[in-house]
Amino acid sequence: MDVNKVILLGRVGTDPELKMFGDPERSMCRISVATGHYNKKTKKTLTTWHNCISWDKIGENVAKYITKGRKVYLEGEIRNNNWKDKDGVQRYGMDIVVRTITMVDSSKDFKEGTDHGPSDADKPDYVKYDGDHELEE
User: Which residue, among 7, 56, 54, 49, has the nearest Cα to 32 in the 3D structure?
Assistant: First the structure.
């Protein structure tokens, strides 16, 4: 038996980028999430950036409700990908395919005017998305 599961708790570093493509049309949303690791010797926190993608309804909800600076908990799996860039050079990358994502900071903690970005008064304090369920509060 093999297991490919990723669990992250971190801050969203970019506003979501939603793209629509294909026939039938599908949606894909891309965000980056930062996690930190404290090094006792150097007394510094080292940041790791994770490229995350979410598909269809999950991606649409991420684009609608999650903004740069929000703290999120997500579960997913690692996917390697490769492609040729516009110059024909082979490129490789790794993404986390998001299966569930939850905002874990409250809208009260996420104030407009901070460096985390804007907040909306109608944003729920707790939001969870997964591939099988609609938006829950």
Answer: 49
Residue-wise pLDDT tens digits, 77-120: 999 989 899 999 999 999 999 999 999 987 666 554 344 433 34
Contacts of 52 (CB under 8 A, 6+ apart): 8, 30, 31, 32, 33, 74, 76, 95, 96, 97, 98
* Domain 6-136 belongs in CATH node 2.40.50.140: yes
Please compute, for residue 63, the number of CA atoms within 13 A of its CA located in the half-sphere on the CB side.
Answer: 16
Q: Evaluate whether 107 touches 122 at the Cβ level (below 8 Å).
A: no
Sequence ranges of the domains in the chain: 6-136
